[in-house]
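Sat 14:20. Reprocessing the chain from the morning session after the first attempt stalled halfway. Input below, unchanged.
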Amino acid sequence: MRLRRLLLLGVAAVLLAAAGAALWRSAAPRPETAHSIADQLLCPACQGESVARSQSPMAAAMRDTIEQQLAAGRSPGQIRRFFVDRYGTGVLAEPGYDGIGILLWVLPSLAVGAVAFLVVRQRRRRPAEPARGEPDTAPSPRTGRARTWDAVAVAVIALVAVVAFTSPERGNTDRPARAADATSSLLTLARSLEDQGRYAEAAEVYRDVVAQQPDDRTRLRLAFTLLRSDRAAEAATTAGEVLRDSPGSTEALLILGLAQRATGSPDATATLRRFLKAAPDDPAVPEVRRLLAKS
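Finished this time. Tokens:
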């Protein structure tokens, strides 16, 4: 019985420590720096790794965005809301205070309270030991103790079940959905970087997307951003790969011709003329004719 009592106290101590840690993390003041904000966000392209620690291009771009928004005078709360609006509440490293998230904050405290109540109740019901030499006529408390341990076991199992089912890492069943969400988030970030003229960073994000989803549209965006970031040789290689898979792609022809021209390749003129023949109504035709006239 002493072993059971020690086990009960150990479970209570672990739950109390977890509840105290959660309360301290939520109540303790933190310096509102770019690093601390990044540490409170999860990288959408990683598995449970914070933006502050991740080495992925997406995390690097998110850190830059945090610094830019802080410099622009936005509050940490506004910055977190900015990322939640784009990637959902799953981007937050800590659970929220509404919906199912509140259970992750309240349940450990409730479990500790329940265990403490059962311990006190059991001690109060424990019969006095008979004096030496007197027969022990008190009813056996075995049934009551068994019920107490059943209640404790149910409480602990309930805690484990709720944490398991509310955790973002519940096994393999939702990995395809998480992968699709991560790809969509990467595309959103890459387009945002393009809009800001940050083509080199956008190219690295598109490269990650291509590794997960190698479709022609994404590879063309990668080739375009590589071209805009003065990496014409890589742009030509990527556009050439698209043309091998889709010989009729006029966008790939255009990017390949421009990349070849930027690298000084003698094939640039022939490639651009192929583009003019294949897409005579494309909005880029006047500019291409102007470039060829200069050649």
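The longest helix spans residues 2-27.
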